Amino acid sequence: MTSREPQLNPAHGDVRITAAMEDYLKAIYQIEQDGGPVTTQRLSEELGVSGASVTNMAKRLNDLNLLVHLPYKGVSLTDAGRVVALEVIRHHRLLELYLSQALGFEIDQVHAEADRLEHHVSEELEARMEQALGYPEFDPHGHPIPSRAGAIPTIMDIPLAELPLQTAAVVSRVSDRDQDQLRLLDGLGIRPGIEVQVMGTAPDGIPILLGNNEERVIAPDLVALIHVLPRRSATS
After folding, report:
1. pLDDT band at residue 95, thresholds of 50, 70 and 90?
2. Rounded to two decimals, what is the model's pTM?
3. 1-153 has which CATH code?
4. Which homologous superfamily does the CATH classification assign to the domain defined by 158-234?
């Protein structure tokens, strides 16, 4: 594979954006999507680096106009920073789908592999993967794949925990942040496209009924990783 040259900063055409910078920008975007402020602590946990490293990189990215860094309040992406983050996410999610569909990787394996490869995708490889996959909109975990222009399909889904009792729904997406948790979900038969209903509550989790009439109890930490599309939304 031919490695992609480091991107030029959209706001500073003579400055190269490194893989480490891309990792930070992608992480900030993902935390923003989760909701709440993007603090030094949250970035440190997401990336597995020290708080001092996060602070130093945040200052550097702020100087490059890729994010806005407010001491003691966290960071937020600028428009230029969002462009870079979305391109990295696009590469990552295309890679996940290609690894899954073309190379037979399991759903709990593709995230880590895509993390290793996302910084080395040439524009030609990106275009060929997209064409071979039929110009997909979603990755294997149900997350939307940004278009070349940075547009993202809207998903009118809700967290599983908010699904009313005995309402038919389809799993729309599952978090791929933790490989072990993703493997547990897959072992329980929970993946995008699976029909589910919440049947009640239990001390150790949420009892659900799958589309094949099998019953499962999903532990609270796994429930938080699942989003669903109620059938009324799917058919409207």
Report:
1. very high
2. 0.85
3. 1.10.10.10
4. Ferrous iron transport protein A (FeoA) (2.30.30.90)
